[in-house]
Amino acid sequence: MVNTVNLNQILEDLDATSALEELQGITEALRDAFSVDHIVYHWVDSAGDQYGCGTYSDEWRDRYLELNYHRIDPVIAGCFQRFHPVDWKRLDWSSKASRHFFGEALKYGVGNQGFSIPIRGPNGQFALFTVSHNCDDATWEAFTEEHSRDLILIAHYFNRKALEFEPNRQPEQSRALSPREVDAMTLLAMGYSRAQVAETLSISEHTLRVYIESARFKLGALNTTHAVARAMSRGLIVV
Amino acid sequence: MVNTVNLNQILEDLDATSALEELQGITEALRDAFSVDHIVYHWVDSAGDQYGCGTYSDEWRDRYLELNYHRIDPVIAGCFQRFHPVDWKRLDWSSKASRHFFGEALKYGVGNQGFSIPIRGPNGQFALFTVSHNCDDATWEAFTEEHSRDLILIAHYFNRKALEFEPNRQPEQSRALSPREVDAMTLLAMGYSRAQVAETLSISEHTLRVYIESARFKLGALNTTHAVARAMSRGLIVV
DNA sequence: TTTCAACTCCCCAGAAACAGCGAGGGCGGA
DNA sequence: TCCGCCCTCGCTGTTTCTGGGGAGTTGAAA
């Protein structure tokens, strides 16, 4: 793998991008620049609705989406719990589903090595930036070691553009919760019953209910559990 | 402001840091390297519990914490909604509380210029990395323009260390959920009622209940909402 | 000044969730 | 082979949550 990558040029190209299709082209240019098999940016969205760009084959991408592989993909699960970029080797491949998934991926041309960077944006947005290649462990470690910083920056810029191009996903910008509503949601997420929450906050249970309903309304949630889930995924509460 | 900053050296120093106190020292070194007034890393916990390190005066930090300024600080509010690093000038200072807050900050030696980078980690973790200085707009723009990429990387490395030093905030490991349990938790988090979930999964509501109870047990949760919250914060389900 | 959002309190009835009991078939690892 | 986990289904009763009303205060923004 050649290491004559001009980081500044890449980032400027990314900055200048004005359309979604161009991002696709940049993944290809990056793949060639880094001399790796694949570069993928993958926005992981709520209901399994997904979006991204990259150099994986169409067959693999379609299969991934169709079979809802994001649910068993250890890369997603692992990155979701981490802040660090992560080498695929360090993930948990112990379950049968994981190994089967990996086998499938190999068949469809994904490299045996991978390096994925989790990226998080406002409102619980979550995405991955992945580099994948076919080589031995030592080569791969040298590569990731050398380029991890550049890749973090590139991932960051990719996500900027993705957020820019997908304003539709932003209107989820629900109105912020009031302090009391945050309190209520937080305590509910901690497992308190309504009675306990009311007591903890020193208010009547009915008042509490008003907060919950208000929060539910602001979050567009169907019930309390949904409201708590949304509040969490949008980073409005931390448990 | 001098621009002889050795980014690699900084990042290596950060990587080698093994204790919280050293991070404080690094903010001071960075301040000198960049020749700015202040460098601050600020972990914002929505519960109001906060933590960070930086070169602000002790008086200002104490005042900030004591008066719960994080609730009215436009830097926090603004960064929380953005992915991009942001110049303080571009934030919303229209409210009375904001302007009062800014006046206070100036009195306590915070610069009139600022540049803050939002950083997000697992479980809704949120932090800011801020550079602040006293100068005119043009000078500041030139500075941020030149260093924004470096600052993004530095911010990233700071957050790595912060997460590393706060293991109690890391998700605890719990037994993995079975596929059916994941399905159940996911659909519940999407706002479905038990009846709807059962129908969606094509199982009886009683069976569904067994999954929910099982998941609740595995997660050590007190009720369904709690179980969903824990499953989400541990990255077992993605909603 | 007026308006608006936030915070507080109250009643009631129906829907939903919880808790505890039990049972049987299948599949994979020790 | 046996043990344990996963998946599936059933019953009964209690507790909790939800949704529909209405009403008063405060404080900050327009």
Set down the secondary structure blueprint.
The structure is a homodimer of 239-residue chains.
Chain A: H1 7-16, H2 20-34, E1 38-44, E2 50-54, H3 58-66, H4 74-81, E3 86-87, H5 96-107, E4 113-120, E5 126-133, H6 137-165, H7 179-189, H8 194-201, H9 205-219, H10 224-233
Antiparallel strand pairs in A: 1-2, 1-5, 3-4, 4-5
Helix pairs in contact in A: 1-6, 7-8, 7-9, 7-10, 8-9, 9-10
Chain B binds a DNA duplex (30 and 30 nucleotides) through residues 95-97, 178-181, 193-195, 203-204, 206-207, 209-214, 223-224.
What does this structure look like?
The structure is a homodimer of 239-residue chains. With 239 residues, chain A is of the alpha+beta class. Chain A has 2 domains: 7-169, Beta-Lactamase (2-Layer Sandwich); 179-233, Winged helix-like DNA-binding domain superfamily/Winged helix DNA-binding domain (Arc Repressor Mutant, subunit A). The first copy, chain A, is 53% helix and 13% strand. The first copy, chain A, has 10 helices and 5 strands; from the N terminus they run H-H-E-E-H-H-E-H-E-E-H-H-H-H-H. In chain A, strands 2-1-5-4-3 form a 5-stranded antiparallel β-sheet. In chain A, a hairpin with a 5-residue loop joins strand 1 (38-44) and strand 2. The model of chain A has no long low-confidence stretch (mean pLDDT 86). The structure holds a DNA duplex (30 and 30 nucleotides). Chains A, B: This is LuxR family transcriptional regulator. Chains A, B: Keywords: DNA-binding, Transcription, Transcription regulation. Chains A, B: One of its GO terms (molecular function) is DNA binding. Chains A, B: Residues 170-235 form the HTH luxR-type domain. Chains A, B: It holds the Pfam family Autoind_bind.
